[in-house]
Every structure is written in structure tokens, then in C-alpha cells.
């Protein structure tokens, strides 16, 4: 159990983001300066392995079915982190005809990291908070 | 091979390049646009920031005897328009980037500034006192006591200004 809580897998989905948050996420994950893997988490390519879901972008009408598909494939329990202003409240795109967000319409969000885009340090903060929730969830999960 | 050796020796001497952020201090650029800081004594509740905010994050509401300036960070896009257009310089963007929060704080993740109204010395109507910076801009190059002017409402201030002009013309 302790090994599971120490090394959760991250999965990232872009639901119509402008790529700003994705670049910051890539920075957080890949370059050694803000190494998010120090916290024990690793990126995975498949939602079936994921424990923490990172969502960027307001939920556009085009990307909504893909988000629902990913949410179905995630193993229970999972933690959802909204990266950027868009998934938390749709930001400047609010009330647009092609936006079906925000994210908490579809799934119970645990951590929000607003910012346009958030700083890599803020994303690390969010992932650290998500890890706390993940530990609690896996302990309570029976 | 020599390139690799150079990097290896440099890394040995200089230590790791990783920013020790969640466990240690981090660096912040001076021009980073982070959370807002609203100076309630400078703000005159003119609603310019509410008008220019592209995402509608700023709301100014009227309460009993005060205006409440609220900024909701979950829709703020940190563009800095409010700071740029603020006529009195009451809004400043700080370098505070700590925005991650749990879902139960989603609607309470705001900064609030309360702008209190005062009573006019002459006619006893309630009004928001003008800030020093605004008065300095309006009465630029005119020899007049600004602290005295702050006590009067816009109507009475207009009257005083007209009387002064009248006196000046008679001289």
C-alpha cells in the first residue's frame, strides 16, 4: 500500500487548451529545473494506468466526448486536478457557444490551479496537494 | 566526450540545477503578474477595472456605507489591464503566484477590499473620498490645500473651485 501511495501515475488531457498550460506542464515534467518526478509521480500515456488526471483547457464541444471517454477508463479512485483558469471556470471563454465547461460539471474536481498559464511552481504546488488527497483516498478506498 | 566531461565537472562544482521549490526557496521574476493588491485608501470605486477586465473577475458591489471590491482568481487571467487602466494607481499586481487550492475553497479564493464612504463637511451627503493621487492630477500646478479638499463631496468641491476662480478673476 505504501508503495502505491508513493508513486502515482499522472495522465494529462488537453480539452481545447491554447497550449499555454500544456507548455508549462511539459516544463514542469521534462526539464530538470522543475522536476515534478521528485514528488514520486510519473507521466503515463494511458488513462488506464493513471491515478491523477491533469486537465487543461475549457471543455470545448469537440473535446467533450474524449474527456468522458478518459473519465470512464480511469481506475477508481482517482484525483482530478484542473490546471489553468479555463477548466476551473472557463475564464475569458465563459458563455461561449462552443464551450461546455467548466470541468466540475462532469467530474468531482479535487484541486484547482488557476493562472493563465500557472507558473511551474504553482503546478508543482497543485500536484503536491493532489498527492495528499490521493493518499487519503487510497487509504479510505475499500 | 570532452563536452560531456565539461558538463560533468561543471555540475560537480555548481551542484544540481533543479529548483528546490516545494522543499526550499524559489526565484521570482520582478515583472511577474501574480495576485492583485488593492489599496482601499487609494481606490475611489470608479469601476474602470471592472469595465476593462476581459474575464469579468472583478466586481464592485455597493453595501451599506461602503463599496466592496472583489477579485475572483478562478476566472482572472492575470493580464494586468486593471493595473494599467487604474486612474489612481490603487491596484498593483504582486509577484505572489501561489494559486493552487482545494475545491472547497473554489468560490472563496478572492481578495476583498472595502472602500468606506465618508460624510461631506458641508452638505452631509455620503461620498467616496478622492485619493491624493487623483486630486494631484486634477489640481495640477494649482496652489490649494488637498487635505482640505478631500473633506468635500464632488458638488461642494465644484463650488469651492468656482469660488476660487471667481476670486482670481476679480484680482
TrEMBL record, chain A:
The keyword Iron applies. Transmembrane segments: none annotated. GO terms for molecular function: 4 iron, 4 sulfur cluster binding; metal ion binding. The keyword 4Fe-4S applies. Pfam families: Oxidored_q6. Keywords: 4Fe-4S, Iron, Iron-sulfur, Metal-binding. Residues 18-129 form the NADH:ubiquinone oxidoreductase-like 20kDa subunit domain. Its cofactor is [4Fe-4S] cluster. Belongs to the complex I 20 kDa subunit family. This is NADH-quinone oxidoreductase subunit B. It comes from Caminibacter pacificus.
Automatic annotation (TrEMBL), chain B:
One of its GO terms (cellular component) is membrane. Keywords: 4Fe-4S, Iron, Iron-sulfur, Metal-binding, Repeat. Pfam families: Fer4. One of its GO terms (molecular function) is metal ion binding. Residues 34-63, 66-96 form the 4Fe-4S ferredoxin-type domain. GO terms for biological process: aerobic respiration. It comes from the Bacteria. PROSITE patterns: 4FE4S_FER_1 (PS00198), 4FE4S_FER_2 (PS51379). This is Formate hydrogenlyase subunit 6/NADH:ubiquinone oxidoreductase subunit I. It comes from Caminibacter pacificus. The lineage of its organism: Bacteria, Pseudomonadati, Campylobacterota, Epsilonproteobacteria, Nautiliales.
Amino acid at each position: 500500500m505504501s508503495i502505491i501511495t508513493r508513486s502515482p501515475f499522472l495522465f494529462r488531457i488537453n480539452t481545447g487548451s491554447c497550449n499555454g498550460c500544456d507548455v508549462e506542464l511539459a516544463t514542469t515534467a521534462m526539464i530538470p529545473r522543475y522536476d515534478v518526478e521528485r514528488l514520486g509521480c510519473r507521466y503515463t500515456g494511458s488513462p488506464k494506468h493513471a491515478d491523477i488526471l491533469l486537465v487543461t483547457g475549457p471543455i470545448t464541444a469537440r473535446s467533450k466526448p474524449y474527456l468522458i471517454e478518459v473519465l470512464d477508463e480511469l481506475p477508481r479512485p482517482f484525483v482530478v486536478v484542473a490546471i489553468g483558469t479555463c477548466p476551473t471556470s472557463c475564464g475569458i471563454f465563459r458563455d461561449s457557444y462552443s464551450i461546455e465547461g467548466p470541468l466540475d460539471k462532469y467530474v468531482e474536481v479535487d484541486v484547482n490551479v488557476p493562472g493563465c498559464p500557472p507558473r511551474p511552481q504553482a503546478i508543482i504546488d497543485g500536484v503536491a496537494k493532489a498527492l495528499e488527497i490521493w493518499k487519503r483516498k487510497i487509504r479510505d478506498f475499500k | 566526450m570532452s563536452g560531456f566531461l565539461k558538463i560533468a565537472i561543471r555540475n560537480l562544482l555548481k551542484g544540481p540545477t533543479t529548483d528546490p521549490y516545494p522543499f526550499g526557496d524559489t526565484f521570482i521574476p520582478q515583472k511577474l503578474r501574480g495576485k492583485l493588491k488593492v489599496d482601499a485608501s487609494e481606490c475611489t470605486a470608479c469601476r474602470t477595472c471592472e469595465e476593462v477586465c476581459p474575464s469579468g473577475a472583478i466586481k464592485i458591489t455597493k453595501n451599506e456605507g461602503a463599496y466592496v471590491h472583489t477579485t475572483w482568481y478562478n476566472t482572472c487571467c492575470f493580464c494586468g489591464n486593471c493595473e494599467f487602466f487604474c486612474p489612481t494607481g490603487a491596484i498593483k499586481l504582486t509577484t505572489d503566484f501561489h494559486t493552487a487550492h482545494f475545491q472547497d475553497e473554489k468560490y472563496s479564493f478572492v481578495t476583498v477590499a472595502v472602500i468606506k464612504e465618508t460624510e461631506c463637511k458641508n452638505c452631509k451627503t455620503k461620498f467616496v473620498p478622492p485619493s491624493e493621487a487623483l486630486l494631484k492630477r486634477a489640481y495640477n500646478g494649482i496652489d490649494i490645500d488637498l487635505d482640505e479638499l478631500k473633506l468635500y463631496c464632488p458638488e461642494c468641491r465644484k463650488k469651492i473651485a468656482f469660488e476660487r476662480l471667481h476670486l482670481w478673476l476679480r484680482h
